[in-house]
């Protein structure tokens, strides 16, 4: 197990290096520091002196890859690539273009994102699996046909409709919970109810159809017929055999959303004024703070690689046929 984890971590290094280099090219080669300065200064006629001053203030006045004016190791260390990209591998995110400590902001905003995303994932997973099993239990019936139509309708509706409609009906008309905002400690629960509820409800259509497809593939296999022949009821067959054997594709689907647990939802956090990493990224894009965007892209890549590793390890827990070598 230890060798497998180490090997996978070594495999992930080229991937993270590729993401880092690609991000560097996009932010510093295609979009040069001079272009960044002009966008930040926001003036039609920007002087060369003001551009040079802005670059010096934000550490963009050194060469990209190689510093001919420096001596020794400073030829590499006194470059934009070393100062702005290499430190990301040590989670040294540096300072944003507005002067804020990016690492401190990430630590502060990770908890609000997690407080919304984790309940949404767990509750949504439970609800979707339950409804999918119910549709499989009553397959080839009018109840299943009605469920399929309802799922297609729910999938066809934009998530913005659920957000705006939920805020208006539940928050403004019924006044059950606040429309938006956030607070510290247990006071944040009342602000989390509505975004979690909307997040779960908006994902039912696609989630139920996905899990229903997985379960339908399992119920036609030989081991399920054997279980029925032994006298197990349809409900017992679904929960004892079909559900455990469908856990591998379920885990594979869950890993896709694992980075969102920490990265947050861009749309959800913006509409509900939740100070998480999703709204942090949106604010950085709007203010053209490229240092923050660069850090969030790299952090998302790291979380996705970790999610893949955890998924591979969890395969051995749900399916004894899978062995790590």
Features:
single chain; 325 residues; mainly alpha; MetI-like fold; 2 domains; 16 helices; globular
What is shown here, in short?
The chain has 16 helices and no strands.
Describe the 3D structure.
The protein is an all-alpha fold. The protein has two domains: 2-90, no CATH class; 102-318, MetI-like (MetI-like fold), CATH 1.10.3720.10. 73% of the residues lie in helices and 0% in strands. The chain has helices at 2-30, 33-41, 48-58, 74-77, 80-84, 102-137, 142-156, 159-173, 189-202, 204-219, 222-229, 234-245, 247-263, 266-271, 277-286, 290-318. The longest helix is centred in the middle third of the chain and has 36 residues, at 102-137.
Q: How do the helices and strands line up, and which of them pair or pack?
A:
Blueprint: H1 2-30, H2 33-41, H3 48-58, H4 74-77, H5 80-84, H6 102-137, H7 142-156, H8 159-173, H9 189-202, H10 204-219, H11 222-229, H12 234-245, H13 247-263, H14 266-271, H15 277-286, H16 290-318
Helix pairs in contact: 1-16, 2-3, 6-9, 6-10, 6-13, 7-10, 8-9, 11-12, 13-16, 15-16
């Amino acid at each position: 197990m230890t060798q497998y984890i180490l090997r996978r971590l070594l495999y992930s290094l080229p991937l993270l290096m590729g993401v880092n280099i690609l991000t560097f090219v996009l932010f510093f080669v295609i979009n040069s520091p001079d272009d960044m300065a002009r966008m930040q200064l926001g003036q039609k006629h920007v002087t060369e002196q003001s551009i040079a001053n802005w670059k010096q203030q934000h550490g963009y006045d050194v060469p990209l890859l190689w510093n001919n004016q420096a001596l020794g190791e400073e030829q590499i260390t006194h470059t934009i690539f070393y100062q702005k990209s290499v430190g990301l591998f040590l989670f040294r995110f540096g300072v944003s273009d507005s002067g804020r400590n990016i690492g401190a902001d990430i630590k502060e905003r990770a908890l609000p994102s997690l407080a919304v995303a984790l309940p949404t994932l767990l509750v949504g997973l439970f609800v979707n699996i339950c409804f999918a099993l119910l549709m499989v239990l009553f397959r080839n019936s009018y109840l299943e046909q009605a469920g399929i139509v309802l799922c297609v309708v729910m999938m066809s509706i934009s998530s913005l409709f659920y957000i705006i409609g939920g805020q208006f009906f539940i928050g403004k008309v019924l006044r059950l919970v606040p429309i938006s905002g956030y607070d510290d400690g247990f006071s944040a629960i009342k602000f989390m109810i509505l975004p979690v509820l909307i997040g779960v409800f908006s994902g039912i259509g696609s989630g139920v159809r996905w899990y229903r497809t997985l379960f339908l593939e399992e119920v036609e296999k030989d081991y399920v017929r054997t279980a029925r022949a032994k006298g197990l009821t349809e409900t017992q067959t679904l929960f004892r055999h079909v559900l455990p054997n469908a856990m591998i594709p379920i885990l594979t689907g869950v890993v896709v959303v694992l980075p969102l647990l920490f990265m947050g939802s861009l749309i959800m956090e913006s509409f509900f004024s939740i100070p998480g990493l999703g709204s942090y990224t949106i604010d950085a894009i709007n203010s053209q703070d490229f240092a923050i965007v660069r850090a969030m892209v790299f952090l998302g890549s790291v979380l996705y690689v970790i999610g893949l590793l955890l998924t591979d390890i969890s395969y051995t827990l749900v399916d004894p046929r899978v062995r790590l070598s």
